[in-house]
Amino acid sequence: MPDRRDNRPRPPLGMRAPRTQPPRKTRLTTERIVDAAMSLMASDGYDAVSMRSLARELETGPASLYTHVANREELDQLVLERVVAEVPLPEPDPERWQEQVKQLLRDILDAYRNHPGSARAAMGTIPTSEGGIAGAESMIALCLAGGIAPQAAAWFCDFTSLYVGAVAYEQSIWAERENTTIAGEPADHEALDKQLTSYFEDLPHDRFPLMRAFAQVMTTGDLTDRFEFAIDVMLAGLVASSGSYRRDDDAEVLAAASLDGQPGPS
After folding, report:
1. The domain at 89-256 falls in which architecture?
2. Tell me: the pLDDT tens digits for 138-193?
3. Rounded CA gap, 200 and 204, in Å?
4. Contact predicate 143/153, CB 8 Å
């Protein structure tokens, strides 16, 4: 006797009812893994990302991830490549190369800010992915357009990358800490500046006369003002010191950069 509680229609005699198929899982790809990693970084911070946490997020096992991403170091490279891909890379203009360098650094900082946690992925990472190398290529090309020595251009590329990443990382730490606002909310920098000014002004004059006298100027300027000052100083230093880093093989290095017989930057 049929169960009266089962109201589903019965198939005709001798025919089977169609089976309900479970929904298919979305195919796991490297892109989905990077998407999940960047989402976790943005919501829970860089340290919340691991192969295990990503596996939970993607509803799979950690072993499945290793088919696409070898380890955490490769994941950091992929995150960095995704971030740098958003940065416009200019065509070098010898007439305005310094402003182009500044804008490139601003754009990299903005890209890090747009993806919280990504700057931490850049710390201790040497960019070897195509996207990361393209960013370095662009910075060196801009420096060469300004007549900077190859060695100075190479080291400038390295330390500006470190500086911009450190600035973005520090800002993300400030956002996570409870300062003038609760943790997770942007700090009230005006309130913080007032607190610091008052603190510096109260320092013992016999021990810290300069810090007392500089209380106002030490706390003047927002994040943008200070970043612009830093890149001005870096560029001025680069131009002033470039000649000290010229080498006997500079012409060889530049000739090696020639493409299809065309002369390289000079």
Report:
1. Orthogonal Bundle (1.10)
2. 999 999 999 999 999 999 999 999 999 999 998 888 777 755 566 556 667 788 88
3. 9
4. yes
